[in-house]
Predict the structure.
Amino acid sequence: MSEENIELVRFVTEEGLNKGNLGFINDVFSDDYEVHTAGLALPKGPAAFQMAVEFWKRAFPDFTCGIQDMFASGELVGLRFRTTGTHTGPLMWMPPTGRTFVVEGVDLHRVRGGKVVESWISDDFPRILFELGIVEEPRPPAGAAPPAGVAIPEAKAS
């Protein structure tokens, strides 16, 4: 069953997130499907997935989620991914910047009876805003030394 669950989550990622095909969602998401993500309240059911895909594809028509690793344990499927996109559409109230982002993360999905019933999503929205230049990345005060063992990256040129 674990391999079937992995293939279902792979299908949802490739067809839904990457290709924007949503005709299958009622077949693979439960009626009471629930999404857990910081700061975003989505309705229960397949519409939650549809809203998320439409949100990302509106702002980033070339949005892709590259699967790096997948694993399963019982009903749970873990996914390590790298998302990319070019900001050519409106992102909430923010006009397009034309800039590209690359963000990595890990999501977890519960599959029961051949349907996705629950997801925990780890969108790194602050990192996306930093990379798009919408929000300035926090920097330590001038002259402050970083904690031992912490490297502070150089500021990116715009």
Remarks:
- The longest strand covers residues 100-112.
- The beta strands are 29-36, 64-73, 76-86, 100-112, 115-120.
- The mean pLDDT is 90.
